[in-house]
Design goal:
By secondary structure, the chain is α+β, with helices and mostly antiparallel strands. The chain is built from four helices and twelve strands, in the order ααβββαβββββββββα. The strands form two sheets. Strands 1-2-3-6-5-4 form a six-stranded antiparallel β-barrel. Strands 7-8-9-12-11-10 form a six-stranded antiparallel beta barrel. A hairpin with an 8-residue loop joins strand 10 (about 180-190) and strand 11 (about 195-210). The longest helix is centred in the last third of the chain and has 23 residues, at about 230-255. It is globular and about 60 Å long. The two termini are about 25 Å apart.
């Protein structure tokens, strides 16, 4: 299914080097060597702390980390156990770049919560403009299928995450171009509601990109909802409810109960 392809393939094959051509691996190795310069051998010297974050079901979790070693292009970091537990549920971590001038995205390679260690590899610099969706967004509690009606016909996808302004959707063979006008139809399940909420709204495609991890035919698109679509209050309530549920999950994970 589309849900299985997007949400589970990276957990089943999280460190597939075939998606990393030699030039990307070389750039990753150079980045790792830059982090090595931050490692101090003096036990009396305070280790350099960097800002980092990960996300769980769309909710961002920020924390400090220290680079303790770089071995075979693997960046070993030290993180508080509660944050290491959160990182263990994620595929990627965002880390402040070694020169403090930007951000690096890295795959989570290994986590040892008791040892307070998270090892990272497959590093890539990203610009601050790589993710323009700054407001809080959430992943649905269960797969949500979405029907998209557009000039080229109809497409079916699954929702990755959503907020009151836009939605990210995973689908195959889109036939959808940037700035395409879309009609979206989907059903949201709210735990505190007596019935599911049916959404029919319109929007414009603001992002189309291929999915690097799975099916080469697959794409991720972002659709910005029209301002006058009339669904803002409904989506805002759904996002707030899901955020509360997700924060409870995060608290349980960080307290070691999940």
């Amino acid at each position: 299914t589309l849900y299985h392809t997007y949400f589970l393939i990276s957990r089943e094959q999280p460190h597939d080097n075939s998606k990393w051509p030699p030039e990307r691996l070389s750039a990753s190795a150079m980045l790792a060597s830059e982090y090595k310069q931050l490692v101090t051998e003096d036990e009396h010297q305070e280790p350099v702390s960097l800002e980092a974050s990960t996300s769980f079901r769309g909710v961002q979790i920020s924390f400090p980390l220290q680079v303790t070693a770089v071995r075979n292009e693997r960046v070993c970091t030290q993180i508080e156990p509660r944050f290491a537990a959160a990182a263990s549920r994620s595929d990627h971590v965002l880390v402040e770049s070694p020169d403090r001038q930007g951000c690096v995205v890295a795959e989570v390679l290994a986590v040892d919560i008791e040892d307070r260690r998270v090892d990272l590899h497959h590093l890539e610099r990203i610009s601050s403009g790589d993710d323009r969706r700054d407001s809080v967004r959430v992943e649905p509690s269960s797969p949500v299928d979405v029907l998209l009606e557009h000039a080229q016909g109809n497409s079916h996808g699954t929702i990755i995450d959503i907020n009151e302004e836009c939605v990210a959707i995973y689908l195959r063979n889109t036939g959808i171009d940037l700035s395409s006008k879309i009609v979206l139809k989907f059903v949201l399940t709210c735990s505190n509601a007596t019935a599911d909420v049916q959404i029919e709204t319109t929007g414009m495609v603001s992002l189309v990109r291929s999915d690097k991890r799975g099916d080469p035919r697959a794409h991720v698109i972002v659709v910005d909802f029209d301002k006058d679509s009339g669904t803002s209050s409904t989506l805002s309530a759904y996002v707030a409810n899901r955020q509360t549920e997700i924060l409870k999950e995060i608290r349980h994970i960080m307290e070691g109960r999940a």
